[in-house]
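Today's session is about reading a structure prediction critically. Students often jump straight to the picture, but the first step is always the sequence itself: look for stretches that repeat, for charged clusters, for runs of hydrophobic residues. Only then move on to the predicted structure, which in these notes is written as discrete structure tokens rather than atom positions. Here is the chain we will use throughout the hour.
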Amino acid sequence: MFTQNPFAELSATISPEIMQGYVIAMVLAVIIGTVLDMMHKKSAKYFFENAQKASKSAKRTLSGGEKVGLAVQTVANEVLTSSEFANPKRRLSHLMTMYGFILFVVATVALIFGHPTSADAGIWPMIWHIGAISLAVGGYWFWFFIRVDVSCEGVKWYNFNGRGDIFIVGLLSTATFALIWSGTMNMLAFVLFIASSTVLFGSVFWSKFAHMFFKPAAAYQKKCVKADGSNENLPGEYDLTASDVQSRFPDIPEYMGTNPPNMGQGIKREQPHHF
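Below is the predicted structure for this chain, in token form.
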């Protein structure tokens, strides 16, 4: 099963050209859906306007080398290793899902375009199956145990949250039916596999699919505003015991005294459970 190209047997029923056309259609669906999502939510406009606003309060100008360095840090941390997740279980689940999806998609393209009729397609069938399994394990782990509305809010795992769950349900159903189809060559499983993947790639405008493109941009911008001192136009961090700070903000000594206690780490005192 793991070393056989599942699309080779399918090519006897469906021509490679049709399979390749479907893949191209899904790529176009993702591009169009992402563009429409950006236009509807005005995401790009928000990023540019926020960056311009932050530049006005920047304490220094970043050099080209610094920007490249921050971009490399973003790729290494937020993209490749998902370091933004403080919960190690959430992080591992996300990494399994993300890399499983990448392997699954890349292997699908390689098999359909490079080996559409070859039962023996080298290492690509193994990568296809490993990707689908990793995607399913990471995704189901998240769905049943890690989702914040399930783990912290008492929502039942079978409750479907409309647009909020289209993406993860599309991922899970695509990987699940792909594995069932590969193992049984059952045409009903294949139809459900195609239906699931069509929903996954065709619902970008309504789902959270496009977050994989927006999150790196947001992470990079956050690093830039922190490095140039603009701090996302948020108030600075002050020493509440300093006399000049108390003169500037007279409410501090009035309500907290002249020697305000250290408020500690706040919510960071507890180990995160949902992010």
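Discussion point for the tutorial: The chain is about 65% helix and 0% strand.
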